[in-house]
């Protein structure tokens, strides 16, 4: 099966997928003679939804390769939806969408072809803040990190009206950056992944290479790298949560690394959806289980299991002394 | 090609910001023409714009304390840059309460208009915010399409009512139909009309006054009560009115019957001309 959607219809397709995603978690995709059908049913079998897109909806529509039986497939709704997640982005930048079903590789391939307009490059803004404007500043000269501004603004919009001081802890590109606010009644922490390369070229922003965030925790005097079977943000979250009730205040894991103990920061594999256009992995390699989304792994590897009662993973950074 | 400029006066800075906000509302992409004595924001009447065109002009010495430019060549001492209007207005947003604003043409991997803003920080030291706005340098062979449009010989010339009132009227009419009739006469009457199968709505503005005519003969030949009308896409008029945040110092509407409507505004010392073609 191969079909091509162009212009405003890309957004229409996206909206249909959004609608279907409200019903079920799995999408049945079936190319028929009278069009492409997308179907879903909910888990309690009390709701069913179907969209049929006639061949005229597409610029090109081929239900099946001549001589072959038409294929059909069932995929995770979440995966398909992620392609059409941002409807405004689809409308603005996507010129055409090509969907094909390959029986040999058992793959559904969705390709988004985006507009490239040389005048519509992004504006670059730079601001420098002098040392005297910080309450405290301790940073290695020349270190640069890149993180998502939208997510950071989430904390800023909370901290600014409350007039709270903001503390930022970061180490190197690829390691997560921690933003914290605190007063006597509450504290808040935002942990954001950073790009492994601090200055991506604007053209490459579509598929940034991300290092899986690997927070380095310091337990007593030696860092225990082996405490984690996988080092993604979930481990960090679990570590933070399991220190509650253990010997005093929950400590913010210190991320200062002793020199010489830099874990290798290899660029993470592309997420599955992004990989379609340029398969860089060896054919036949199962997709990496740890890396499902662009930023954080949300599915732990089955091998991970905490050992016995949770050990203290992070030393109190603010002890009684 | 060189361009360096600086604004230090707060009032000039605010005025320049307002001009930039207006341009951003009128045209998504526009051409900035830089000459030794003036700056122009230009929108040429291409099909992509729906035939609408804009010509905005300001004298640089009314804004800039420093202004140096070197055009493409000595004989053609001009620079034409294409940019996304919103980028400039967004950059200038940070210039509120700035100590100084510098705009210069730079080349950082690609040509940019670099807007450099010096702010006063909490600790009383200066903080610099820099915005690099990507621009496209327009080659000389395309300059002919970007020249000042000739003011048409109009059938009627009339002063506009308060733009805010006009805008709210047009906004309501837009819900009824996209087809708007603008008609006016030399007696100070201006009507905005919507006609559909079900309903007709007309708003009458009276005693608006007409600018003095160019020649005496013309005024005698024309019947002052006779209306000249032009049919336009209401959305284009609405876009024009939406760009006018402040009521202009002077606002004239020139109608060439069934051809074009030309708005000639003066915002303090910045002139804006906006042309909307008639519906075919």
UniProtKB/TrEMBL annotation, chain A:
<comment type="similarity">
    <text>Belongs to the rad9 family.</text>
</comment>
<dbReference type="Pfam" id="PF04139">
    <property type="entry name" value="Rad9"/>
</dbReference>
<feature type="region of interest" description="Disordered">
    <location>
        <begin position="302"/>
        <end position="321"/>
    </location>
</feature>
<feature type="region of interest" description="Disordered">
    <location>
        <begin position="248"/>
        <end position="291"/>
    </location>
</feature>
<dbReference type="InterPro" id="IPR046938">
    <property type="entry name" value="DNA_clamp_sf"/>
</dbReference>
<dbReference type="InterPro" id="IPR007268">
    <property type="entry name" value="Rad9/Ddc1"/>
</dbReference>
<dbReference type="InterPro" id="IPR026584">
    <property type="entry name" value="Rad9"/>
</dbReference>
<protein>
    <submittedName>
        <fullName>Cell cycle checkpoint control protein RAD9A isoform X2</fullName>
    </submittedName>
</protein>
From TrEMBL, chain B:
<dbReference type="InterPro" id="IPR016580">
    <property type="entry name" value="HUS1"/>
</dbReference>
<comment type="similarity">
    <text>Belongs to the HUS1 family.</text>
</comment>
<dbReference type="Pfam" id="PF04005">
    <property type="entry name" value="Hus1"/>
</dbReference>
<protein>
    <recommendedName>
        <fullName>Checkpoint protein</fullName>
    </recommendedName>
</protein>
<dbReference type="InterPro" id="IPR046938">
    <property type="entry name" value="DNA_clamp_sf"/>
</dbReference>
<dbReference type="InterPro" id="IPR007150">
    <property type="entry name" value="HUS1/Mec3"/>
</dbReference>
């Amino acid at each position: 099966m191969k079909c091509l959607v162009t212009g405003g219809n890309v957004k229409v397709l996206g909206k249909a997928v959004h609608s279907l995603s409200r019903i079920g978690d799995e999408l049945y995709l079936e190319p028929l003679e009278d069009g492409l059908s997308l179907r879903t049913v909910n888990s309690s079998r009390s709701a069913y939804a179907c969209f049929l897109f006639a061949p005229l909806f597409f610029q090109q529509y081929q239900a099946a390769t001549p001589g072959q039986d038409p294929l059909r497939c069932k995929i995770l709704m979440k995966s398909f939806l992620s392609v059409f997640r941002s409807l405004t982005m689809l409308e603005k930048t996507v010129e055409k969408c090509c969907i094909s079903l390959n029986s040999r590789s058992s793959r559904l391939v969705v390709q988004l072809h985006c507009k490239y307009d040389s005048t519509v490059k992004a504006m670059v803004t730079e601001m420098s803040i002098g040392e005297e404007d910080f309450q405290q500043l301790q940073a290695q000269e020349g270190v640069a990190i890149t993180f998502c501004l939208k997510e950071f603004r989430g904390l800023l919009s909370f901290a600014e009206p409350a007039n709270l001081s903001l503390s930022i802890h970061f180490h190197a590109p690829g390691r997560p950056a921690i933003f914290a606010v605190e007063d006597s009644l509450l504290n808040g922490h935002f942990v954001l992944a950073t790009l492994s390369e601090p200055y991506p070229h604007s053209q490459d922003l579509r598929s940034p290479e991300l290092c899986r965030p690997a927070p380095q925790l310091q337990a007593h005097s030696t860092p225990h790298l082996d405490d984690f079977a996988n080092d993604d943000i979930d481990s960090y979250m679990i570590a933070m949560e399991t220190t509650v009730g253990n010997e005093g205040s929950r400590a913010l894991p210190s991320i200062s690394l002793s020199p010489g103990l830099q874990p290798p920061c290899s660029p993470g594999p592309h997420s599955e959806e992004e990989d379609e256009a340029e398969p860089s992995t060896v054919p036949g390699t199962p997709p990496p289980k740890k890396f499902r989304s662009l930023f954080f792994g949300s599915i732990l590897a089955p091998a991970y299991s905490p050992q016995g009662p949770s050990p203290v993973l992070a030393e109190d950074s603010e002890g009684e002394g | 090609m060189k361009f360096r400029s600086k604004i230090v006066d707060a009032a000039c800075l605010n005025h320049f910001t307002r001009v930039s906000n207006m341009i951003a509302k009128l045209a998504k992409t526009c051409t900035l023409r830089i000459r030794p004595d003036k700056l122009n924001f230009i929108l040429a009447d291409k099909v992509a714009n729906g035939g609408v065109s804009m010509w905005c002009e300001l004298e640089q010495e009314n804004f800039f304390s420093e202004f140096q430019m070197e055009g493409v060549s000595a004989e053609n001492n001009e620079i034409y840059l294409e940019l996304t209007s919103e980028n400039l207005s967004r950059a200038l947003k940070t210039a509120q309460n700035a100590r100084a604003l510098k705009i210069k043409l730079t080349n950082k991997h690609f040509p940019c208009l670099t807007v450099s803003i010096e702010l006063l920080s909490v600790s009383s030291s200066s903080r610099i915010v820099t915005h690099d706005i990507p621009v496209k340098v327009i080659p000389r062979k395309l300059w002919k399409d970007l020249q000042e449009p000739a003011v048409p010989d109009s059938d009627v010339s009339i002063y506009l009512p308060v733009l805010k009132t006009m805008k709210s009227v047009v906004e309501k009419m837009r819900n009824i139909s996209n087809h708007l009739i603008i008609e006016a006469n030399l007696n100070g009457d201006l009507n905005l009309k919507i006609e559909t199968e079900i309903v007709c709505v007309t708003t009458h503005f009276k005693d608006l006054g007409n600018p003095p005519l160019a020649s005496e003969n013309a005024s005698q030949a024309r019947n002052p009560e006779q209306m000249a009308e032009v049919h336009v896409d209401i959305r284009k008029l609405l876009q024009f009115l939406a760009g006018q945040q402040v009521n202009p110092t002077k606002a004239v509407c020139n109608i060439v019957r069934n051809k074009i409507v030309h708005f000639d505004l003066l915002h303090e010392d910045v002139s804006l001309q906006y042309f909307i073609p008639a519906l075919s």
